[in-house]
Amino acid sequence: MKHLLLLHFFLLSVASAQEPTPEQVAIMQQEMACADGDYSTKILVVEDDPLSTGSSDNPLVGAKIVLKPYSGEMKEFTSDSNGQSDEISLMGCDTLIVSKNGYSTLTLNSGSMFPPEDVPLWTIKLQADGTSSVNSTLSNDDSSSQSDITTQQNIPVNIETGYKGFLWGTSIESNISNNFTPLQLSSSDSLNKTFSGKLGIDSVLVRYAFADSGFWKVEIDFIIPQNKIEEQISNFRRLEKNISSVYGVPKMLNQKESGVSSAFSDHLNQKFSRAFYRSSWDVNPAIIELYLNGNVLLPNSDLSLFSGNFSVLKLVYYNPDYMHSSQKLPEKEVIPSIFDIY
Asked: Largest CB tally within 10 Å, which of 17, 39, 104, 157?
């Protein structure tokens, strides 16, 4: 898996005659790390009754266990009559969500919660009073240790209140719980928190932006092929269709293509093929913006006149109610009257 990811980014950069950006390198390194630590376990879901004085807990039948892999399709398991799931294969950055009607829901990250080796059984305790705890790994001799995990309960997840459960207006000091991996791209970037990861089939860079009023925007940069304008447009339309299936047709559309076609072949007179696409959805109080600025130098050549990445595909969710800043605007320059000059 690690070698395939390296090969993917290497071929992409060679094909476009461009060096990968620092963001692409960071994502590649993160995906390599998340591809390590392949191991398997079974999940035992039990009822954690704080009033019980016994040493054993009752198994929970029919508990739902959702595996959200860092890369790949989501899988769902159900605990059997003994409270156990089938064997689950885990990678380094997968997420497990364990729930049952009438009990608390627990979210675990495999990289931080699970040891990097195969284990026979992992016990997860769910309490009916809204708190949860999880046992550390049971070794082969059935010895275990206990640790508590605090989870945020009853967080709304719709875009009107925030992004994936992180509420609009939340301070930058607050912990962001998501399936992405944090990145440190710049020590001077004090108003953003940056993550890398996967959104469906796409590799993305995700920035949570904060103002004086708290969290106001999330900006998602998609890793796209830099040398194929048609594929860039196809990616935009795919995302636009997916968003429209949830929020309806865009309120605003702007689509414009210009420049040469992909059939252009004059290596001594290289030109750009351009695509500007933008769609907006008004989901009061939030606004969604999907934006493509595609610029591909043609014909594709290892002797490009201009090097670098010229195309961006972004998805932005923001709440105008929290776009507040105490930073003073620059004072307007006073231009003398023409009569004072002449």
From this structure: 104
